[in-house]
Fold each of these.
Amino acid sequence: MNHNQNQSSTHRPTSDDLLELFESQTNDWTEAQQQLEDYWMAEYSEQLATGLIRPNPPTKEMIKRAQFVDKTYHWKNAGIRPGEQRTSK
């Protein structure tokens, strides 16, 4: 079962995503680093002010490992259809 998630509401940018964004906005690497630091300080101050700390988003590996596999049900006669058991007479 595959659930479609709204990526815009569940995706929280990682440091790599943000650094790539800030580097695309400026040619100076140190300025991009400073913008990244300012972003995380603003996030932290918001968390302190509201008391809400967002959980980290799951990685692709975590999502893959969490997929449900039903190991309790075993198919009997999986390769035999009901019509194949009948005799011609």
Amino acid sequence: MLKAFTMTAAAAFGLCAAAASAAPSAIVKVHSNAPQHLLPRERIMEVVRARYIRFAGDPYLYNGRYIMRCYDKLGRLAYCEIDPYSGAFIGISLRL
């Protein structure tokens, strides 16, 4: 009886140890400093076009944001800012 109990306990311990050793290999680590991919310039132009903003020229990357020359509602020269990772429209800044 004691020998059967010991064998059962040893088998249960072996299964737990095998499961514990397999668990860390199943975890996928994602590094926070992994490089993120920028959206293509065509997609940035679509974002600005969807907001019915007239633009002149291609978007360019400046200080971590896409910048585009555009015109405001009164026809004055302005600059649109777009997030290069998500495509979110940040805003328009006027040049006086």
Amino acid sequence: MNCPKCGGEFKVRKSARAGCTDSRKYLAEKAAPTVKWYVGLDYMVRQRKCLSCEYSQETVEVLLKDCREMIIEIANKGIPKDF
């Protein structure tokens, strides 16, 4: 991935699976409000950092099929109340 601030290389620094109970649980929980309502515990969160400007941000991975279905459900029914 490219850094959204400078276009540099955006590398993975840490990863956490949903439902993990180790020291990276905080990272997995950051994405829970956004995706858990639809995918349950089937997602991965990655903390990325730019090698050039050191900007840091999290990304979330879900199956493409689930991503498409989430978008369709939000378009049809609106944003879930627990979002």
